[in-house]
Amino acid sequence: MTNAMMADSSLGDRLRDTPLAAYLRATGVLLALGVLLKLAGALLQALLAALFGVGPELDAYFAAVALPNLLISFLILGPLGLALVPGLARAAGPAALQQSQSALSALLTLTLGLSVTFTVAGYLAAPAIIAALAPGFGPGVAGLSVELFRLTLPAVGLAALNALLRGVFHAFQRFEVPTGAYVLSDLLQIVALVALSPAMGIHAAAAGMVLGGAAALVWQWWLLARAGLKLGLARPSWGPDLRRLAGPLAVIGLAMAAFQSMGLWARLYASELGPGSVAILNYGLGFDKVVGGLVAVSAATAVYPTLAAQAATATADAAQGVRRGLRGVLLLSLPLVLLIVTLRHPLVRLWLERGRFGPEDSIQVSALVMLLAPALLAGAVAYPLLYAFHALGQLRAPAFICLMGTVAGAALGYALRVPWGLQGVALAVSLSGAGTSLALLLVLTRRLSGLWGLREVRFTAKLALAGGAAAVVSGWDPQQAPAWLALGLGAAGGGAAYLLALLLLRVEEAQEAWRWLRQRLGRFLPTLR
């Protein structure tokens, strides 16, 4: 490994003994960059709604990208993004780092080969895949969906390569690089959609996915090269290094794929419920990108390299690391879910209601948000739990739990889809997610002594009280006010009420954040010191 990367690795050493403030700073960096990423994603969704409404074209697009997006999310946030972190985080000295680099080169070659194979196989099997994912589509919509599915396939292979590079940067605490690359990817998708949709229609959105993935890969690869890490393609041999990565990667991959596939079977059932149903459900599920994809991933990612380094040496330290990640996720995601539910009407109106997306569509999406709220919180909690199981090397239990959870959810959704329609499917998603996350927490608590006790129960109760106060304050909706005003007043009032309640209830993380803020502001306002 290079001198530049070696210098960055010292951050990993310091983080092992870091105080709470350092963890909060790392999470804050990821959140700040993640906000840019989610804003770009929200703008992309808003453009799709404005250009195509909730008609057959968008149904075909969302059905086509459901599996690729699942795989992309799985690859980036799942095992390929985690596989190299433990080894690199624990590496000490040039020899250990060189061994990890060799494993990376072999894994990179193997990933490239599998990506090409997947793309060719997916292209040939596209009609059968779309027929299985959206059996309710007519011939015209199904044919369009097949075209879009084939067009997006290369984005999955690019995501796999991006995920490996993401793991390298995260192992050395360079969290800003991969997130910045994904922001660039989303921005290119937006540009492609605006520039190409007049000529290509909905195909422009699929083409933008591929262009964005390629740009993210070039960006990360270039920055690694600048740091002196010259990546190459090495012949993958089934040696100790690759075997050490492949086993855990496959098992935790099964767990994450099973958990994330809830959205896949939900869209399958929605395809049978009439035109526009897939699009409406997709927008409702899209809020998980804010709660799980932003908050949970930021908190879990910030603590994972340290946890991976600690897990092999000290159970008490590992329990503290997992507990810190869980507390961070709950601290941010619980009030966020409550605010989303309380402000769902102005939020959906401001986000989507323009062009071909009308008021009736906003009402349908808002109704689903309420039912999907438990799934949003459950998905957020699941990320640090699965990361913890992976860091601890305890993989079979989460794989079994996630598999059983999604199977039970799919069966429940199948039973509820006819009598209750989209609302029944959304309820099944929430019950499946909540049950799976609770089971993961219970099993990990039994295996990791001191993880979640009476102190954490009190902490959760304080968050619930503070979140309730935020929901009450944000629920005030000025009559006939524009959506942006109602949303702004609600978010500002609810956020202020939540922070004040946390301070009054003496929540440790809030007090630490307030001390940090006072120190910074004290440079300009001495009375705050």
Brief digest:
This protein has helices spanning 3-16, 20-52, 56-77, 79-82, 85-90, 94-133, 139-171, 176-200, 203-226, 240-260, 262-270, 277-285, 288-311, 315-342, 344-352, 359-392, 396-447, 454-474, 483-504, 508-521. With 529 residues, the protein is an all-alpha fold.
Mean pLDDT: 78
The H-and-E topology, N to C, reads as HHHHHHHHHHHHHHHHHHHH
Mind telling me the C-alpha Rg? 23 Å
Give the terminus-to-terminus CA distance.
43 Å
What characteristic shape results from the CA principal axes?
globular
What's the total count of β strands? 0
Structure description:
With 529 residues, this protein is mostly helical. The chain has 20 helices and no strands.
Question: Secondary-structure blueprint of this entry?
Answer:
Blueprint: H1 3-16, H2 20-52, H3 56-77, H4 79-82, H5 85-90, H6 94-133, H7 139-171, H8 176-200, H9 203-226, H10 240-260, H11 262-270, H12 277-285, H13 288-311, H14 315-342, H15 344-352, H16 359-392, H17 396-447, H18 454-474, H19 483-504, H20 508-521
Helix pairs in contact: 1-13, 2-8, 2-13, 3-7, 3-10, 3-11, 3-12, 6-7, 7-9, 8-9, 10-16, 10-17, 11-12, 11-17, 12-16, 13-14, 13-16, 14-16, 14-18, 15-16, 15-19, 16-17, 18-19
Describe the structure using short key phrases:
529 residues, mainly alpha, single chain, disordered N terminus
